[in-house]
Amino acid sequence: xxxxxxxxxxxxxxxxxxxxxxxxxxxxxxxxxxxxxxxxxxxxxxxxxxxxxxxxxxxxxxxxxxxxxxxxxxxxxxxxxxxxxxxxxxxxxxxxxxxxxxxxxxxxxxxxxxxxxxxxxxxxxxxxxxxxxxxxxxxxxxxxxxxxxxxxxxxxxxxxxxxxxxxxxxxxxxxxxxxxxxxxxxxxxxxxxxxxxxxxxxxxxxxxxxxxxxxxxxxxxxxxxxxxxxxxxxxxxxxxxxxxxxxxxxxxxxxxxxxxxxxxxxxxxxxxxxxxxxxxxxxxxxxxxxxxxxxxxxxxxxxxxxxxxxxxxxxxxxxxxxxxxxxxxxxxxxxxxxxxxxxxxxxxxxxxxxxxxxxxxxxxxxxxxxxxxxxxxxxxxxxxxxxxxxxxxxxxxxxxxxxxxxxxxxxxxxxxx
Length: 417
Known about the structure:
By secondary structure, the chain is of the alpha/beta class. It contains 19 helices and 15 strands.
């Protein structure tokens, strides 16, 4: 649809490509013009860090605050005990309360880089839905909340129907998830005046449930806004790479590897990613994204620097770029490469090069490492690695060894003194 927004936030969402759908464009736009609007996104604590797949939602909250409104980050301390079934082939493994709390602590560190938590009218709130979910009385909840939900309608949502169509089991526990998420929106509206829920387009059904429930119980008008589910131009899932998930916490993925992920963006994605993941003016994003040939590589460096600076700080971005230039352009080692330190006990009488490649994170298994060597994709200190039976002893690690997989992935292996 063609809609010309009046509020800064809606204009940013539309210009930069954040907007997939909205339950009421004009209603939300008017609310945003009328005062400070609290808006939330829920994040289940299934890991100690969020990954790049969640970054589009984090950037939405950042823009919400930058345009004069109040972001709410809702940690799913309660809902993580159930698990979101949306578009999953099987039930999530259930986590202990202690593990959930640990994960929330890790995720909290990510948000503090992007939004400000303070006591100002636009200061962000960090909340946990265990606050209202843990103490629910089941019979009261069924009577007061459950009666508002139609099972027929719940079965019609794509996230549920896709599981049933494939004849995959959907437990009653998971089926309850969408009711709990709807109840979150109701409670956030009741307690904090929250007016809008954001999420990926796969959350549309859950968001609409929360809007309907709040209207029925409180007679309040609230809104939902979804972002597109991003895939890369080659069809890959955003946030995944050959070496695994691209985590946002530096203790789970080094700033250099994070920088490299963005530097390796496909040419066709550069302009789109600059709009979504940086704060460069839209016209600059379009100009950089339109570059061709070798010039697009400089645009990718701009992208990598801007995104890394937001997540890990400007110094980390500068160090990553310096290391990359040294490694790629000068054939050097680079100070900021991912490093594996091995003890003499680990090395023993010698460790195979195949094991080293796996330990360095350049291959997921010995089989993959051997294939890398067989296909001439592995190098040691920039020389081709051809012998999968090669062993390295402690004396060979008196100075660090540089291992490479292809032209873009590198790691150092050294002796832990």
